[in-house]
Amino acid sequence: MIENQDNIKTLAYLTINESHEPLIWLDPTATIRHLNKAACQFYNKNYNNITGLQIYDLHPKQDEEFWQKQYSTLEEKESLRFEEWYKNENDTRIRIRMTLNLLEFCEEEHIVILIEDRTEEYTIKQKVIESERKLSTLISNLPGMAYRCRDDENWTMEFVSDGCKELTGYNSQDLIGNKKLAYSKIIIPEDREKIREKIEEQIQKNSHFEVSYRIKTSSGEIRWLWERGLGIAGQDGSIVAIEGFITDITNMKNTERELIEKRRALRKLKDRLKEETIYLREEIKLNSNFENIISRSDNFKKVLKKVEQVAATDSTVLIQGETGTGKELIARAIHNNSNRSDRSLVTINCAALPSDIIESELFGHKKGAFTGAYSDKIGRFELADQGTIFLDEIGDMPKNVQVKILRVLQEGEFEQLGSSETIKTDARIIAATNRDLEKAVQNGDFREDLYYRLNVFPIYVPPLRERKEDIPLLVQHFVQKYAAKTGREIRETSKEVIEKLTEYNWPGNVRELENIIERAVIVSPGKRLTKGEWLPENKIEGQSGICTLEENVRQHILKALQITNWQVGGDKGAAKLLGMKRTTLQSRMEKLGIERP
Questions:
Q1: For the chain, what is the domain count?
Q2: What is the DSSP pairing of strand 388-392 with strand 345-349?
Q3: 564-583: per-residue pLDDT in tens?
Q4: DSSP run (H or E) holding 377
Q5: Residue 204 domain-assigned?
């Protein structure tokens, strides 16, 4: 029996000594008398270096006075526990719990200390406390009502935040457990069943729901509320509760109608400000009236006289002339000298857009009107309201769109694609074309009624070959422009160059002249523009008016390119029209200096 007791004592000592929890034995003076292996490892010291020390020597935040208080407490309670932060040998702060028990052994008192690492538990606890604090603060300050209710007929409330009073006029205790009335009874009857179906459908899918509905407050006021929530499932997977948040959207609903009414005006303003970065207006005048239009030709002065006459009116203008003669400059001059000059001049090239896109560009579309219509788009006619719209290359307008243009001219209204709403516009129309519209009408390519509507005030812009006295002025202007742009110092142009340029027939008109001068400025080595390879060679021969073969070829290619809207290859391209390969046509165009305007 004694042998068994000795074994048990040995086992008990071994268990304590090998325990993973640090254990320390102190006398009433806080002197360490014994400790187990885990305690030695905790303090990172060997047994002999620890025994004999005071416990507060190992814990800087403790002292003799502190331990005297602990001992006094232990004499009364025989057990106590406290927590503190402890920095180990690795300078790592850990949260420890020290549990103290007072024992009497061999007529002497001993204090047994158990040390536990509570760092992880403490961190988690603090996070929970902080989360609960934040949640409580959030719920208390939210301009609405957080809730938890049962998924029953009355949506019986189990929890309601303090925002309930301001939202419904009822105290939270009035609604919890249906003490005074059920929350569902506050909801307007015609909204009640509708939102119940939606909520039930979503929570069964384990999805969040969002609903808007009306309630009648305790004072009889009707309010609009927005609610977002989620069904809470029990252990068996069935929905046992609903949790969510409710907020007041009455003001939003009250202004919704007003916002809808103002939507069109706001959209116009927003899109106009956005689009005006594209359609920047330029001041165009001659001398004091038309800056950047350079001419001393009597032919062109007649054009400018017409511009002055028509600018002050709202009449529709049709500008006709060859490619490169400056039809858009004339359109801008009309707009900038009109009473609409403070609004946008909106331009669109009817030949540059595919037929399936031009209608949307002109009149706009609603989201989903066709494949790729991912959002609403304002059209050019709506953007040009109170301003001017310039329809360049009107002769290439598809016939189905011509009908809508005619309606705008006649009635000042249209519909966006995908919408039945009629939009009014007060946009002045200026059109331009290099085609013979009368011939197009005869061929059935252009509506006769639209032609007469457009041709209210026709302006013909003469080609450069009919205003050759302007060539020296234009050359000087373009030389100065591109010399400044490229950083060159070209101060004069030789007489021979001016003569050669004046002799040339200019099928591409002013635009072609500008391109050639830009090229000349780049390749000219000195300060004087002199004769070089850049000069066009296909001039008119003598006084007969007969062009060289090369010039005839050039004119023929240009005509084919104009007919095909400058499409070189493909079934509808100029190469096929001329009966040659695409690469051959491109090579010939490069040799003749033909470039797309």
A1: 5
A2: parallel
A3: 888 888 888 888 888 888 88
A4: strand 377-378
A5: yes
